[in-house]
User: Fold this.
Amino acid sequence: MKLDVFSKFFFLLGQDKWERKNRKKVKQVEKIESKEEYFTKNGGILLEKQIALSQGKDIGAHQLKIVSEDEIVKATNNYDPDLIVGSFRGQYLYKGIINDKVVAIKTPQKRDPDPELVDRFLTAVAIRTVLCHDNMVRIYGCCLETCVPMTIHEYCPNMELHHHLHGDLALQKPLTWISRLRAAIDIAYALSYMHNALSKPVVHRDVMSFGILFDSSFHAKLSYFDHSVAITPGKKDQSLPVHGSPGYIDPKYIETQEVTAKCDVYSFGVLMLELLTSRDPFEMAQCGNNLVDEFISEVERNGVKALIDLILMEEANLDEIQCFARLALKCVAKKGEKRPSMVSVVEELWLIQEGQVKPNTLHEQ
Assistant:
């Protein structure tokens, strides 16, 4: 049948509409298949990580809620920039509401496939589902439908320790000695738990003030488990690429690439010195300086008082400060075997908090 000009026009218009409609359907199917593929792949990797961490044993792991990408979009108001409350290492942190609960939602800044970022996200999820502690930021759920998974965890409204020591709050409302001591105890508890809860110690590998958050009750909570690893005690040659924040990383770990629980002890010792001095180890490292070396040098010259935050000198008992500093120096000893365990660190910090301190000088170690 021969079509006139108008009939041919409407026929082609209808055909084009049909083709566009079907192309849209094909794209929707491809998108669904892609989501399903991501979900299956990411879920499988997560399960493998959880089994490896718990050695296949049921240790009462936290129940993880799996949410859809649509729920994330709704909770973040389609990734509204005004809801971003933080950003760090290629990740955005959104404040959102899921199931009437205020939560923090961690998303990648770039939505492109990135195997390393996927591994980091899923490692953090596995750690916090297998290991649950009051002083570890709690995870509520995750989305596995995207090329890089997204995580939902408890919202800590009182910001990072780093901000309280080095940000605007450091000038407006400096942290008291009691708050700093309690924060140290909280994080020491979390690390002690990580090192001892399972038959294989889990090493955090990235202890730093930016990764410590304060909840609504101002309790300190350990976060950023992206580089955490389980190690086998006594097994030699457990070498891994060096991860962590400059200024906090164990020099022995940098030299040998051998991961042990004492790597965390060193980083925690640096954190203790940061709490004492209010100096930023990361910023110092960027300028070629080292907080540990500077502190030890001042101790040897009997000039360490010049490094202690003046707020602490006004508030704290001098014996308490000396005991805290002495414990920090034990933690940053050059040889790992000379450093205390995190269990011992917790015990000594408790004695300081209870006022059971020995009035020794820093030289008496």
User: Anything to note?
Assistant: Residues 86 and 93 are 5 Å apart (CA to CA). The longest helix spans residues 5-54. The chain has two domains: 65-154, 161-353.
